[in-house]
Amino acid sequence: MMDSFEALRTISRHRGNAIVVATMTSHFEWPQVSTCPDLDLVDSGAMGKDSSVGLGLALAMPDKKVIVLDGDGSLLMNLGSLVTIANMAPKNFIHFLFENRVYRTTGGQPIPALGKLSFAGLAAGAGYPNVHVFEDLKSLEEGIGDVMKSNGPTFVCVKVAPGTKKPSYPIVRTADIVPGFRAALRKG
Amino acid sequence: MQVCREGEAIGVATGLLLGGKNPVVLHQSTGFFESGDSLRGLALDLNIPLLLLIGHRGWHRNSPVTDSAAKFLEPVLDAWHINHYLVETDQDVQRISTGYREAQQTNRPVAVLFGRDGISS
Predict the structure, then answer these.
(1) Residues of B in contact with A21 (CB under 8 A)
(2) CA atoms of A116 and A107, how far apart (whole Å)
């Protein structure tokens, strides 16, 4: 198990010029570590739907890598997106799943099926050709180079410590950043 | 493209639009109800010019409407301030273009509903 901030810092160092869609806990934490905020869409507007938004971006812009920083509670609200993503199979799509086993932004309630559920198993069963699980920071740092080079769609389960409180960083209001995000995408 | 559930379609369409493409979403009224939070949190809150083509299940002009999907569709669209147009006959199909242009001009979702052409069945 690793600290979610350390995991995000590792992803940030390997991000290159990828578009990043960050939701829920990452909505709060990613803006604290990102070095390329113009290409970030931080959004928690629709429950669980940011993997779908990332898929749309990946299909619209096949020459850009798209990274989704998803939460386990979020993915459970949109499990069908695994099937849709695997079916559309965008090569430029990397789906990070931060498994903290709680609904952190609403106070840390446990997700269902703790100890029974395998997110990697769900992704593999849906048809993702590449599935990785990283239990600690050292293995993430060793493996992330291959993850970033892979032909997607790629699913990466990152086991992070459960936060017990809602993150206290100021939340970025998505509607405020969308015009700048679109302008950055148009510039390429 | 196919999706597994309609709320997903709103998310994918939002991503496509932000990335410069021009999607429309084709679904039935029941799927519109399912996609409510995605419409609110993405299409409405982020000012997405999205055309929603919605099959108006159970709606008939000349016979009693008993399907709750038909009874609630237009009141719910009105409650959410989503403008809508009804297509019943071939003469109405220009309303699809009207809805599309309105979505582009207002940066909002606009719905076009497809009902039966006045013949009960």
Answers:
(1) 15
(2) 22
The predicted structure's pLDDT at residue A166: 66
Chain B residue numbers touching A84 (CB-CB < 8 A): 1-4, 8, 12
Residue contact B3–A84, C-beta within 8 A:
yes
Q: What is the pTM of this model?
A: 0.95
pLDDT at position B40 over 70: yes
Query: How much is the average pLDDT of B29-37?
Result: 97
- Those of residues 25-64 in B touching chain A at CB distance below 8 A are 37-38, 40-42, 45-47
DSSP state letter for B32 = H
Measured CA to CA in angstroms, residue A13 lies from A6, A7, A147, A151, B101 at distances of 11, 10, 13, 19, 43
Phi-psi group of B16: left, alpha or beta (phi > 0 → left; psi -120 to 50 → alpha; rest → beta) = alpha
CATH number of B6-114: 3.40.50.970
Please answer yes or no on whether B1 and A53 come within 8 Å at the CB atom: no
Strand-pairing partners, residue A109, are A103
* pLDDT on residue A153: 98
Rounded Cα distance, B110 and B104, in Å: 9
Among candidate residues B32, B36, B39, the one with its CA nearest the CA of residue B14: B39
What ipTM, to 2 d.p.? 0.95
Asked if the Cβ–Cβ distance from A174 to B3 is below 8 Å, we say no
Q: Which of B4, B7, B17 sits opposite A49 (nearest CB)?
A: B7
Write the CATH number for A42: 3.40.50.970
Structure tokens at A174: 């998505």
The predicted pLDDT at position B119 comes to 46
CB contact under 8 A, A47 and B14: no
Which of A49, A92, A105, A181 is most worth mutating to test chain B (most B CB atoms within 10 A of its CB)?
A49
- pLDDT < 50 positions in chain A: none
Question: What is the number of structural domains in chain A?
Answer: 1
